[in-house]
Each structure stands twice: as C-alpha cells, then as structure tokens.
C-alpha cells in the first residue's frame, strides 16, 4: 500500500473519530437539556408527576425538570437553546411566536382559568381597587394577562395600577408587606402569610382560557419528532398517574410545591384534578380568548400550535388506555 493511500485511510479514520465524538457530544448535550415549568401552582403538577414516575425516561428522554418563575422567561430559555422544552403560559408562547420566535406549542395543560383574585382585607368590591396596585409576576405573563382581562371586563382598565414583581414568591412577599392591594394568581402563600381573601374566582367569569402550553423549538420538532412525542406522552402519563394515585400524588405535590400544610396540599391536588385536561390540547376557543385580548383575532392556530402529535395519540387510543382503569 502506498504512503498516500495510508495517509488517506488515516485521515478518513481520524475524520470518522471526530464525527463520532461530535455526535456523542451532541447526544450528551441533548440528554443534559432540561424541561422547565413556569409556576409552582397546579399547572405544573403533570410535569412533576411525569418526572417522579420516570415517565420521561420511559419514553426515551433523559431530562431534569427545573422551575423558572415566569412564562416569558421559560420562552427566553427555550429560544436560547437551554431547554429541551417547557410548560409556559400560553399567552407568552403565542406572543413569542407572533414576534417571530421559532418555537411551537405541541400540547396544552388546561382550558379554563383556575386563578383567583386575592385581595387585602379592606377590599370588598372590585371598585375598591381604583387607584390601587395589583401585582403580577412579569409583564406578558399569565398573571399579567388574566389581571388585565379581569380589569377590562369590569371597566377598570386604566383605573388600577399593575406592577411587575418578578415571580410568584415576590408577589406573595409584596402582598404580605401590603405593597400591593391584591394579585391574580393560582395560589398566594408565604412563610407567615395567613389565608388571603379571595374576591373573584376567574373561572366564574365563564370565559375559556388556555393556561399553559407544552412548547419546543420548531427545529426539535422537525429533527426529533419522536422526542417531542415522548414529551407529550410523558406529560399525559403524569396527569393520569395524578388522577389515579392520590396518596402518592399528594407527596409529590408537597415535595415540589414545598408545602407542609395538609390543607394547602389537598387544595393544590383538588385544583390539579379539576383543571388539568386529560388530553393535553389547547382548545381553539380557549386560544381565541388570548388572541382577542392581544387584538390578533382570526390568526390561524397553526401559526403557533401543532396538534399533530396529540391528534395521532388520540387516534391510537393512547389517552383512552391511560384511563381505562379509572
């Protein structure tokens, strides 16, 4: 064999090794990516369950779950390539896509708003909020969106201040220190916060509203559709487990929600089984509420939502099988 042939074979071998290392490194990097959730309320329960029962691993996904305190921040992390996927406020996902972000929703958590308007003891009517301040996590978050929808519905938009606090715990701290008159959120709790007064249950407003969406990058969906299907499967299995195994579910909620009070744990579980949909699909009418609020009525759902995986699993009877014993 000539020297040139030997050198050529050596070069090919070296390139093969290099490519193999790169592929292995890429696979390792993907396995280290995380799945985020944007609140410690009931919309996160399905994600917690999926992780605790190893549903992600069962579906071929090696990932950890992390808490990021706001939907818009989850979207930013997703855009930065730091996440495999995330459960983020639907309005944050939709807004990002409409502004050109290459992400897409492949599932949804709930189609009714389970949030409440918590207020200070001296607030007895919505009109009492005039000139006062309501706290939200971040502008563009689900708490911000629902707060403004509530104010608009009751003719108080512009008459009530809305202040960005940063996260759910910061909102609770501001409420406890009476820096805000109230807040629209799923639950309001702090180290020494007594049970706050609920003025409005937003579900009583009778409007459909998509709460959170399971979002991934469009590139991930294109390149690894089986991985994205695994995410949807794992999440749905987590919700099914929650519905069918209350005692274990209560312990998982206490762990991830950092709850000790049995009543708070029970309340969280009740909200979860009441509002989390067994088929994780953001319904058109629930999405339209968000679009109408944004002044974007009529934009096709396909712009930001790909329901093909949920529809495929529905045709295959996947969700029906999950609940055949319940």
Topology:
Layout: H1 3-32, E1 34-37, H2 45-52, H3 55-58, E2 64-67, H4 71-79, E3 83-89, H5 90-98, E4 103-108, E5 116-119, E6 133-136, H6 142-153, E7 161-164, H7 168-176, E8 182-185, E9 197-201, E10 212-217, H8 218-223, H9 225-244, H10 246-257, H11 262-275, H12 284-294, H13 308-315, H14 318-322
Parallel strand pairs: 1-2, 1-3, 6-7, 6-8
Antiparallel strand pairs: 3-10, 4-10, 5-8, 5-9
Task: Jot down its keywords.
D-Maltodextrin-Binding Protein, domain 2; 326 residues; 10 strands; single chain; alpha/beta; 5-stranded mixed sheet; 2 domains; disordered N terminus; globular
Describe this structure in words.
It is built from 14 helices and ten strands. With 326 residues, the protein is of the alpha/beta class. The protein has two domains: 194 residues, Periplasmic binding protein-like II (D-Maltodextrin-Binding Protein, domain 2), CATH 3.40.190; 90 residues, D-Maltodextrin-Binding Protein, domain 2. α6 links the parallel β6 and β7. α2 crosses α10 and α5 crosses α12. The protein starts with a helix and ends with a helix. 46% of the residues are buried.
